[in-house]
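ASSEMBLY PREDICTION REQUEST
Request ID: AP-0331
Submitted by: J.K., bench scientist
Number of chains: two
Total residues: 692
Priority: normal
Notes: Please return the full assembly, not individual chains.
Input sequences:
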Amino acid sequence: MNFSRLFAVFRKELRQLARDRLTFGMIIGIPTLQLLMFGFAINLDVRHLPAAVLDDADTWRSRELIAELASSQVLDFRYHVTVPQQIEELMRGGRISAAVVIPGDFENRLEQRDRPAWQVVVDGSDQSVQSAARQLGSFPLASLDYGSAALRPGALAPQAVEIVNFYNPERRAPINTVPGLIGVILTMTMVIFTAMAIVRERERGNMEMLIATPLSSAELTLGKVLPYIGIGLIQVTLILILGDLVFGVPIRGSLFAVYVSSLAYIGATLALGILISTLAKTQFQAMQMAFFLFLPQILLSGFMFPFDGMPVPAQWLAEVFPLTHFLRLIRGVMLRGAGLGELWQELAALALFIGVVLTIAVRRFRKRLD
Amino acid sequence: MNARDPSRVVPTDDAVIIARGLTKRFGDFTAVDHLDLTVRRAEVYGFLGPNGCGKSTTIRMLCGLLTPSEGTASVLGNELPRDAEAVKRRIGYMTQKFSLYEDLTVTENLEFLAALHGRTGASARTRINELFARYHLGELRGRSAGALSGGQKQRLALAGAVLHEPELLLLDEPTSAVDPQSRRDFWDALFDLAEAGTTLLVSTHYMDEAERCHRLAILDRGRLVADGTPRDLMAALPGTTLHVEHAEPRRLQQILARQPHVFGVAQIGASLRVLTDRREDGVDWLQAILHEAGVTALIQPTPANLEDVFVAATRPSVVRDS
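STATUS: Completed
Returned structure:
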């Protein structure tokens, strides 16, 4: 790796970018348009939400309630906790989306019917979870109907259960959408830009001249891709500013964590772009391949449809996509105020993705024409 | 015909390119077929051949851009493809299609190339100014490469290819997009380089350019069909060239084109140029044929030119003396 050659490519690429008005327009235009378009809700139902349960009552009725909730398949009780703080910790780390809290005076509350007898705590940073919770609220639970046959069934549930919405009390869609949109916009633009930038050299015949020089493939690839890291960060900043100004989307975690997450994801998209560039012969092909990878990511990552509602094989597939991990990261940081330490698995997944994809790309990239 | 002048055989340590049995296949298609080639230091070596004869593929193999399917090639003492990277440091390659950046200026393109070859700062500036002067690019320095004319682009491409003072320069049809005056100037520039010790391998499909080379290889469908100095090649032509004058050259051409011993008939103005494999008795033979067809024409032997050599060498059923 020779840094003056690397820098020469980097500077050349910046100069070309500065003169390419179309690309420049896309860098600013795509995020702005997308943000405004997607700023509106996407709303669907879920099942198998990872959940925790805190049963302070521990009576036969409370146990029956839990069993019934579990059999409803909406909640998947993975943790039994003893103090409310644990719920908060688990939720902040993204390990649960909901929690059922049954207070010690559960039996009393059921008899008195003056206060909600139990509580569902939901992760408001995920829109799909909110709607699932609403579903729970109106769920006909046999165990709670016990001894209350005289009451109208419809009146029972809202009184019996209280839904507490963490992180997004007003249930505003843009709050859920905007952080995810950072990922979607980066996927869309970064993969296409990098793949096309490298393929363009080949399509316009510059590659033939370049590979006849001492320039190494690593220097060429890195030099070409580095400017796009900067562009990615500009886009992230633009979305954050617009998200705040237009939709009032908060950043509850540290800005540092937001940028570290974004940087990791930009790395993943660039790696993907480089891989595509080794496969595509023309810019058009590169665009098609980028799109081919873009759609399943959008559909399966949890951006558009609830992750927990997908069939298990689809979830496995989604775990391969970097966008899935980035969504968990950025929602955790921006909406739940989580730190990077709590979400280290997602960062590790992105790092692994970058490593694997870059290795494949470098092996495929030959400094030859055949 | 492989006309080699024994007096010109030079020790192999003076050879810059040695290729033996060089072959390149793309699937079922053989682009270059067992090519033997020796190019010596400071000579201008021409590759003459029709489009698709394997000129570009051979040049790309010699630059290390393509891996040979078979055979060996040694360039500047480095074995290909193993030492391709070492070769790339010492050669210059001018691609057939303009391959610098059209959206960068002349200066920016040269600065970029200089940096790729490890020249930065003052040494790069000095060299670039030298090139500006030599290739008349100074006034164009701020112009973007895409806005240059064909001849200007070609000068820029040449400047880029020789920026790092390569020992060997490979040029793939460098003059295909420029006017005659630019072509002449360009060839002067090539001879300047050769005089300074650079070895040049130039592919072309122009006869006049081929004629200017020190030595020459004629390629046809991937095979080397003739090589030697232009003069030797013309002297060794396996046939005779006849100049035929007649009032109706088109009709005469139709008659002659059907004859078995005729390689080619070309109309030059009002007369015909006939290439035949009858060596000694060419004039009498043609006279007899025309007489049979009831035509009388003025027939004169005329010196062979490189086009005759080319036509004879690339003829499918040619009988070659070896």
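REVIEWER COMMENTS: Residues 41-45, 145-159 of chain A have pLDDT under 50 and may be disordered.
SIGN-OFF: pending second reviewer
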